[in-house]
Model the fold of this input.
Amino acid sequence: MPGPWGLNTHSQVSDFGCPRDKRMFPMPAEVVGYAAASLTTISFFPQAVKTLRSGDTRSISLGMYALFTSGVLFWSLYGLMVADGPVLIANLITLIPAAVVLQRKIAAKHPSS
Done:
């Protein structure tokens, strides 16, 4: 049965080909996925908020942040393509502040005249 955004969250077969009632773990994998996605997404915000409030991007590597933001974008696309809700939602949420910080870093490196 499709869940949000048409994602199949109630398959009768686990990712390992085992019937869901015979899995090694009693907790649905989606719960673990959403918990992991929540923690990693939340962990990103304190640094992003600090950077946005201070406006200081000197300690941020432009190359690293460009690669990070691109990776988050591609993880979002992957989550959409394979209908993986935790991957899609966590990365879409992270993409917004990551893109804003990246834009600020680029603007600071190339100030307009």
Remarks:
- DSSP finds three helices and no strands in the chain.
- The CA atoms of residues 41 and 94 lie 6 Å apart.
- Helices lie at 29-54, 62-81, 85-109.
